[in-house]
Design a protein that fits this description.
Elements: H1 3-7, E1 20-25, E2 29-34, H2 47-57, E3 62-68, E4 70-72, E5 77-79, H3 85-95, E6 98-102, E7 112-113, H4 123-129, E8 143-148, E9 151-156, H5 169-179, E10 185-191, H6 202-212, E11 216-220, E12 226-230
Helix pairs in contact: 2-5
């Protein structure tokens, strides 16, 4: 994998900023992260957060944050905005990460990159994933499995000291899928064992509609009861990109 590969995977139709990075976990695996924007801009996910949460959701421990200061291609070299300084400082401080900058593509036979190995999107796997939830404040586990054209991606809810910087399982799965090159999302399965009736929060509904409005959601309320509905039905009269007064990038 090269830096330029990650650049093409950024979802930044509103700002045009191509932010991307990698986190090296204690396992030695490199977890990619890309900017994932939303029409409701406070819900956008930064590259560093995406990479760190991908690492954590796989049961790995983030150790070093890697990002480029420029991109080299056959024709020229150009600078990249990478992650914002404020974002980098927060996440490095939160997890005690080393932060390294490289002008060269991240590649090599000795490197191991994250690849999903999820086989099934079912209640059995959703239940197993609850052990990976990081929920020191809510003690409320939620897991998700996102079915895409690039495979199945897992997500768990992750909380940090700054409550607003935590992410729900659905958004973790979407961020992982984007960084892995997935372009089409077909269905998402969600499970919350402590809830009598599973239902995504308003923020997740807005994000889901943006990335898979025509997709299907399966809400697994318990081991035997499941509800199925289209993602678009989750958020009637949703705010859409067409409402903006300028063209998308």
């Amino acid at each position: 994998m090269k830096w330029i590969d990650l650049e093409t995977r950024c979802y930044a139709p509103y700002s045009g900023l191509k932010d991307f990075c990698m986190v090296k976990g204690s396992s030695g695996v490199l977890h990619p992260g890309v900017r994932v924007e939303n029409i409701s801009f406070p819900l956008s996910i930064g590259a560093a957060q995406a990479a760190i949460f991908s690492c954590l959701s796989e049961g790995d421990t983030p150790g070093a944050l890697l990002f480029p200061d420029k991109i080299e291609t056959k024709d020229h070299t150009r600078k990249t905005s990478s992650c914002s300084e404020k974002e980098l400082l927060y996440w490095c401080d939160e997890f005690g990460l080393k932060c390294n900058t490289s002008s060269h593509p991240v590649s090599g036979t000795d490197e191991r990159f994250f690849q999903t190995n999820e086989q099934n999107a079912d209640i059995v796997r959703l239940r197993e994933l609850t052990d990976r939830c990081i929920i020191p404040y809510s003690a409320f586990p939620v897991t998700a499995l996102l079915v895409t054209d690039a495979g199945i991606f897992s997500g768990v809810n992750i909380e940090v000291d700054d409550w607003q910087k935590g992410l729900c399982a659905e958004r973790v799965a979407i961020a992982k899928a984007r960084a892995s090159g997935a372009a089409s999302f077909q269905e998402i399965h969600v499970y919350a064992p402590q809830s009598d009736y599973v239902s995504p929060c308003g923020a997740c509904r807005q994000v889901l509609v943006e990335h898979m409005g025509d997709g299907v959601m399966y809400m697994h309320h318990n081991d035997v009861e499941t509800s199925r509905l289209t993602v678009a039905d989750l958020l009637p009269y949703q705010f859409k990109a067409g409402s903006l007064g300028h063209k998308q990038h």
